[in-house]
Write a structure and sequence with these properties.
Layout (H helix, E strand, L loop, with lengths): L1 H27 L1 E2 L3 E2 L3 H31 L1 E12 L4 E5 L13 E3 L2 E7 L4 E7 L3 E9 L11 E4 L5 E10 L5 E12 L2 E12 L1 E7 L3 E4 L1
Antiparallel strand pairs: 1-2, 3-8, 3-11, 4-7, 4-10, 5-6, 6-7, 9-10, 10-13, 11-12, 12-14
């Protein structure tokens, strides 16, 4: 990152220098008392072009760098395999940033996924009429200030464990669902990943999940 900053500074400085020289040549047709140009206009145009290209490159790199820093991507994948009577409804963890909720409004055949938000709870509601997979990838700017996930809690201090709170309802209380859930939030300098693979039973329960992967610059 430091090298990139030096490169941007160098390009802007080089661009400013050549643009300045071009303007001097164009207005005075000389540099100081020693340098005269046979074709001052051509020399001035060359200096202005070189300066503009350098400054443009610096601006382009700055724009790309700022865009990467300001963009957060969300990857949300949920897959269910129903063992028993469908349909089933699952209340799953959801991102805490409200700007990501619209992306989780999706349908797959007769199954659907959406985010519900109440005063006391936020969850992704999956209505599955059969085995189904939802895979959603979206991004937004600026980066969200809220990178939390609902219904996921850490237990313990010395050796923390992570649990996901999930409800499932079905017409048949003996129905089970093999659930795979992966949630990722990442941007230029932050990466957060949760992963859960478990069998869910009818009712409300907390299911142990892999410890989240967190990478910070």
């Amino acid at each position: 990152m430091l090298v990139l900053g030096y490169l941007i500074f160098f390009l802007f400085g080089l661009g400013a220098l050549f643009i300045f020289l071009g303007l001097i040549i164009l207005t005075r047709r000389r540099l100081g008392n020693y340098f005269r140009f046979r074709k001052p206009t051509a020399a001035a145009v060359t200096a202005l072009v070189v300066g503009s290209v350098a400054a443009g490159a610096g601006l382009g790199i700055t724009t790309v760098f700022w865009t990467e820093q300001s963009t957060t991507s969300m990857y949300y994948r949920v897959a269910v395999q129903i063992n028993g009577t469908g349909p089933v409804e699952l209340y799953l963890p959801a991102p805490g940033d409200a700007r990501l909720w619209n992306a989780l409004s999706a349908t797959n055949g007769t199954s659907s996924l959406r985010v519900d938000h109440t005063l006391t709870d936020t969850y992704a509601l999956l209505h599955a009429t059969g085995n189904v997979i939802f895979e959603i990838h979206t991004s937004l700017m600026p980066a969200p200030s809220n990178q939390s996930l609902s219904r996921i809690a850490q237990n313990g201090d010395s050796y923390p464990e992570w649990n996901a709170s999930i409800d499932m309802s079905s017409a048949d209380p003996r129905t089970t669902v093999a659930l795979t859930l992966e949630i990722r939030l990442d941007n230029y300098c932050y990466y957060l990943r949760y992963h859960l693979m478990t069998v869910v039973y009818v009712g409300f329960a907390q299911y142990p999940m892999d410890a989240p992967s967190i990478v910070v610059c």
